[in-house]
Description:
The complex is a heterodimer. Chain A is α+β, with helices and mostly antiparallel strands.
Amino acid sequence: xxxxxxxxxxxxxxxxxxxxxxxxxxxxxxxxxxxxxxxxxxxxxxxxxxxxxxxxxxxxxxxxxxxxxxxxxxxxxxxxxxxxxxxxxxxxxxxxxxxxxxxxxxxxxxxxxxxxxxxxxxxxxxxxxxxxxxxxxxxxxxxxxxxxxxxxxxxxxxxxxxxxxxxxxxxxxxxxxxxxxxxxxxxxxxxxxxxxxxxxxxxxxxxxxxxxxxxxxxxxxxxxxxxxxxxxxxxxxxxxxxxxx
Amino acid sequence: xxxxxxxxxxxxxxxxxxxxxxxxxxxxxxxxxxxxxxxxxxxxxxxxxxxxxxxxxxxxxxxxxxxxxxxxxxxxxxxxxxxxxxxxxxxxxxxxxxxxxxxxxxxxxxxxxxxxxxxxxxxxxxxxxxxxxxxxxxxxxxxxxxxxxxxxxxxxxxxxxxxxxxxxxxxxxxxxxxxxxxxxxxxxxxxxxxxxxxxxxxxxxxxxxxxxxxxxxxxxxxxxxxxxxxxxxxxxxxxxxxxxxxxxx
Lengths: 245, 249
């Protein structure tokens, strides 16, 4: 059975009031035999960077372009994943040079999920989270450990990016996953118990599974991400990509 | 039959907001009782306060009256921003004779602006050390409870010069700024010793224009609001409005 994927980025209310574009980006695609592989890339541009939306978008596009060459063997080792991140980072540095700005101006976080028929590889640099559904339970692959301050995180453009990459290979068949940026962290995760909040994920995955025509969910999903009950809790950009099979 | 809105039953976790702590470190030494407007009748008496001689008059608006009014404006402005009101935490520590924690850290909702009274000398060194310790203690509490927080601010206001030893405090301010443990802002009111302030504060001390405490406190609230709204990647570069409205630069 193939993948059904739904994803959206919505600019945060703080960005809209300052007329700053959405600095989040995402890309996903299925590939391989019978579309049995799915990759999701999500990036959150640094608020203070002048070209953050360029950085975030370029990073996602580069992940999509390059991941197929690393699959399956290389991506399931830490070295292989680091090499992929390094290639994507080099593309950011090259673009910074072309734009004649410091690489810091394209700073962004990066979250990557690559899921095959019976195995998967996950990597994350910076905040946001990847959540897997396993039966009735939901697992956060990398618990977001903050830098000391709530408005600081690590970025792909950092010199020490290799040290910040969190990596996990999985030998299991994943059938539900979600990737999202930190704008949704405090709504989708339970920080007291350090777990995913089931009340958020269960209805989300059910809705996608039950939809006869997933295309019809695109508008309602955007409205949901931009809804008042979400915006009264966060004014940051929000990106959520989720998939079932 | 009612149509269920897609995603209408997606629940949202309730987590505590990240905290944005700010210590208001306020000089309430005797000189803050100086009348700066609406002076009443001269009684013919004089009084010694905080190293100076003052004529006693029958009422008027004092520096500390304006400071108190400023605190009320600070609170009102914060409360106008619902996200900031949930995130900003305020503590008031005064120094005048002794150092007092008048208000330990509370959220903006629970903050009741105090009515401060002026008296005594200016133990600036001890006050700064107490503020730094209060910030460290607060961070320990946050970490214990899994709360996220922004870099704490210490907002220091004085109209005089220290009457106690202050060099240790100055060294701790420098160390704290260097290690990004807090951000220390110093404001000197008319009569403050700016030479000493410049040795204590790493950031250039600001000179309050006249007695525009209210404008200063509204600026402080708006600055705290900006910090409390900032997102990852903005730690070093939170854009603050210019203090030109209340500080002579």
